[in-house]
Amino acid sequence: MANCLIPDHYPNQIDITRTPLAFGDRAVPRLNRELQNKTTLLTRQRALRSLCDYLHDPEHIASCIEEGIPESLKELLSDSDPFCRYKSAECLYVLSCNSNGRRAIVDQGIIQTLSVLFDDTEVMARRNSHKAVEMVSEFAFGSEGIVDLKLIKTLVNKLKTELDDIKELILDTLHFCMQVDTDQALEAKAMEVFTSLLKNEAETIRAKAARDIFDLSIPLEGKNEALKLDTISLLVNLLNDQDSFVRCKAALAIEAIAITTPGKYQCIKAGAIPSLVSLINDTLSEMRVNALKAISCLAEAPEGRKALLEDVDKIKKLIDDPVPIVSKHADISVRIITWKP
Fold first, then answer.
1. Cα dist. 171→48, 158, 197, 206 in Å?
2. What whole-number distance in Å separates Cα of residue 169 and Cα of residue 166?
3. Which of 35, 107, 249, 318 is 20 to 30 A distant from 259 in Cα terms?
């Protein structure tokens, strides 16, 4: 029989860790007020939890920006409570997944505040801040903003000490930023750090480090730096890596460095040609293209051309490859190898 006793616990559908949302267009103003509450820590924490869920709906992004939510989150990035710092960074990451949110983060100068969390003692705060910065860097205005703030040196230095999963985010951020400017990376000795990461146990980090070496080797200064550090020998070793993504990016980096004459001869001396020839029949079309491009560069040196004449028949078969770009570069390689003065 039913009784009138009041239970001492919340109903199952009530989450006491989140702020109940107000109805309709009152939801965001209430959340914003609670985010700005300086007296009660629990109020800020509950509001952040609710806001993080609320932002996952793209339809809510515009109203949150209009209400000033990004500015409130910016303030919470420097909160004394670790939970508030990492949760506000997570909210900004969710915002950065939206075009309007990315623009708000850049225009309101939030990147600089996010970069302060790179030194935070809380791992989640560092991880979320790097996730937000990486997402913003994928777009031109974001990577330009990071370069203008001169954060490249800070990011490069963090590669020496951070956890592996955060290193992956930093390598991605630097990849996009170096498409805008490579000078800061060169000044920060980024080539030395990337070269050391080629020995990392994680396949993803080795691959992304090789990709970033390619980005940094576009200018002549980067190529010369790679030659000084003997980066070539490590890249040649990676051509035999078990991971296909690592092999692919290693061939890409070799291609960039081998454009110069010293680069060609250092690659030939390191034994790159046999490894590159073994990759031309790889199932991955990007791998075949990168290997053929590198072979074309090495074939421009007389010693490279002489060594590749033994394998020209293997390369000729790729002229009939179903992938047009592979066929194109196979034809270029054959013409360079068979060229006679």
1. 29, 10, 10, 10
2. 5
3. 318
Q: Which residue has the tokens 């051309």?
A: 305
Which residues lie closer than 8 Å to 324 by C-beta, 6 or more apart?
Answer: none
Cα separation, 337 vs 277, whole angstroms: 13
**CA 301, 324, 219, 278: dihedral to nearest 10 degrees?**
-50
Q: What percent of the chain has pLDDT over 70?
A: 93
Distance CA 341, CA 328 (A): 23
Distance (Å, whole) CA 116 – CA 74 = 11
Judged by DSSP in three states, 2 sits in coil
Q: Model confidence over 44-72: pLDDT tens digits? A: 999 999 999 999 999 999 999 999 999 99
**Buried b or exposed e, range 160-180, using 16+ CB within 10 angstroms:** eebeeebbbbbbbbbbbbbeb
Structure tokens given for 285: 């079309």
Q: What is the DSSP string of 286-322?
A: HHHHHHHHHHHHHHTSHHHHHHHGGGHHHHHGGGG-S
CA distance 261 to 267: 10
Q: Tell me which residue of 128, 253, 255, 137 sits closest to 194, measured CA to CA.
A: 253
* Number of helices followed by number of strands (H, E) in the chain: 23, 0
